[in-house]
Amino acid sequence: MKIIDTYLIKEFLYTFIGVLFICAIILLVYMIIESYDEILENKPGFYYTFSYFANSLPFKLIEVVPLAVVISVLFTVGTLAKNKEILALSFSGMSTVRIAMPLFCAGAVISILTIYFNEAVVPGCEERAGYIEQAFIRGKGEKIITKTKDIFVKGSGQRFYMMRDFDSRHNIMSQPTILDLNTTGSALVQRIDADRAELVSGEGSERSWRFFGAIKWVYGEDGRLKTMQRFQKPIEIPMEEGLEKFLSNPKRPEEMNFLELRDYIRILERRGESVSYYKTDLYLKLAFPFASLIIMVIGFACAVKAQTSNIVMGFGLGILFTIGYYALTAFCQAMGHNLVLAPLIAGLAPNMVFLLIGGYLLYKSA
Question: What predicted TM-score, i.e. pTM, was given to this entire model?
Answer without folding.
Answer: 0.81
